[in-house]
Amino acid sequence: MRNDFEIWMERQGYAENTRGAQLHRVGKVEKCYGPIDDLIASNTFEEVIRELTYSTEDERLGRPNPSRIQFNGNIRNNLASYKNAALRYGRFLEETDGVPLDDEGDTEAEFSDRVATAQPERHKLALERDMQAALRRDILSLGKDLSIVDDGVERSVASGYIDILCENEAKDFVVVELKAGQTDPRVIAQILGYMGDLLEEEPARSVAGIIVAHEFDRRTIAAARAIPNLRLMKYHVHFSFSELGIAQ
User: Fold this and answer.
1) How would residue 114 be classed by pLDDT, with cut points 50, 70 and 90?
2) Of 105, 120, 144, which residue sits at a domain end?
3) pTM of the entire structure?
4) CATH number of the domain that 227 lies in?
5) Distance CA 84, CA 165 (A)
6) Residue 39: inside a domain, yes or no?
7) pLDDT for 3-38, tens place per residue?
8) Domain count for the chain
9) Domain limits for position 11
């Protein structure tokens, strides 16, 4: 495992205990299957991911743990955690493209051109990470019966990564998708893809969605009218100020 994986996770806004858990899980996957870098290079990574997949149907039928990883507790929940950690490490490898990160989380190439070319997008991503961290601390602001069920990191599904995965009092999944600024119509396909992936993984459970943004485009609003299990919620930014005491 590359040492700069933790730097990357820190840049993604993951809490220290979450980073520690991810490092542990990736380490355990690599101990049982070998370095993920090598698995990707040999085109066997997807086979490992399939081996780490355990459905609600598998659970209902009482099927044994299909993986090489030994653990105590619920098979489905444990394997989902290991699979998500492995996929997250794979995303880290893809995004960094084999180039180590510096202490600021930039590759050497990114450092040279980040101000000129990448600053607006990075600012947007940083804002979305801050939004996610704030919402995780106050998830009840989206619904009084919501609880987070993704272990503090984005849940991996076939279509991508769910910003925050919750469940409500009825044990239905609730997908939360965050957008800094104004949405564009693509967000509808994005969140419906995530919701559909969850329905495929766990067909016995219902799924709802919440899109959180500062403003919503006209098409997203129109589409949401036709999707009864999708809600749109606006966030508001508040500033507070305090005087910096300077010794004279």
Assistant:
1) very low
2) 105
3) 0.71
4) 3.40.1350.10
5) 13
6) yes
7) 899 998 888 778 888 899 999 999 999 999 999 999
8) 2
9) 5-105
